[in-house]
Amino acid sequence: MQTSPSPAENAPTAEPGRWRKLAVDGLWKQNPGLVQLLGLCPVLAVSSTAVNGMALGLATTLVTALSGAAVAAVRHYIPNEIRNPVFILIIAALVTCVDLTMNAYLHALYGVLGIFIPLITTNCIVLARAEAFASKNPAREAAFDGLTMGLGLTLVLAALGALRELFGRGTLFSGAELLFGEPGRALTLHLVPAEANYQFLLALLPPGAFIGLACLIAAKNALDARTKRRAAARPTQAEPAAAPATEGAR
Q1: Is the pLDDT of residue 26 over 90?
Q2: pTM value?
Q3: How far is the C-alpha of 107 from the C-alpha of 101, rounded, in Å?
Q4: Residue range(s) defining the domain that contains residue 218
Q5: Where are the compositionally biased (Low complexity) regions (predicted)?
Q6: What is each CA distance from 49 to 43, 61, 177, 190, in whole angstroms?
Q7: pLDDT, mean of residues 133-154
Q8: CA end-to-end span of the chain, whole Å?
Q9: In the chain, how many domains are there?
Q10: Quick check: is 8 in a domain?
């Protein structure tokens, strides 16, 4: 017999700072592309341009958010022994919907992304959030966690794609019309004149993806280290200001 959720699970969990913590974790502290290093296959393979990376990231975000909400909604009714197969079935159904929708309405972009849309089903990020978070939390929080984790991956894909496109082709947002329609052509920036036929193959090939991702990880670690140093220095700077007040009290 299926047990009903405990009162604690039905109680609201949106205490102050809860949503902010989920957002900061997904976008920065636990970013799946820079910290957890999950789903590296699409990160390295599709990020040849900013538009390609952004498109796959948004598709993954949609699946991660919806699967988190769906798993959280039925978590009390799934036997523990078949938990993971059920999670994969839910994710596969959502990925199929996204795959068919993109094939129908964004066919040119769908042809560029190819097999990586169906492969969202096996993306470690989606299944990891379903297992680690959605299966233990309410639907609203699970959906928001999936949304922020997906957006964190999208930012990494877009940044890495922009970096590789800039150094590899001298352009930014090339192929934007695939995602935004014909008006997207106006978004393409040619930082190197088109007639120059500029191309730097190292940035466009897989080694460039590894180098670019390493640079992004290094930049994040440097920013985190700088923030920690500033936080550690604040109490030291405040001590001299407190000393005269102590002497006056004596």
Answers
A1: yes
A2: 0.86
A3: 9
A4: 20-235
A5: 233-250
A6: 11, 18, 13, 13
A7: 96
A8: 71
A9: 1
A10: no
Q: Is 13 part of any domain?
A: no
- Residue 197 domain-assigned (yes or no): yes
The DSSP secondary structure of the chain, one letter per residue, reads -PPPPPHHHHS----TTHHHHHHHIIIIIT-TTTTS---HHHHHHHTTSHHHHHHHHHHHHHHHHHHHHHHHHHGGGS-GGGHHHHHHHHHHHHHHHHHHHHHHH-HHHHHHHGGGTGGGGG-HHHHHHHHHTGGGS-HHHHHHHHHHHHHHHHHHHHHHHHHHHHHHHSEESTTTHHHH-GGGGGG-EESS-GGG----HHHHSHHHHHHHHHHHHHHHHHHHHHHHHHHHHHHHHHHHHHHHHHHHH-
Task: Tell me, yes or no, whether 10 lies in a domain.
Answer: no
CA gap 7, 166 in Å, rounded: 54
Q: Is the pLDDT of residue 12 over 50?
A: no
Structure token pair of residue 106 = 């964004």
CA distances from 181 to 20, 121, 154, 187 (A): 34, 27, 20, 11
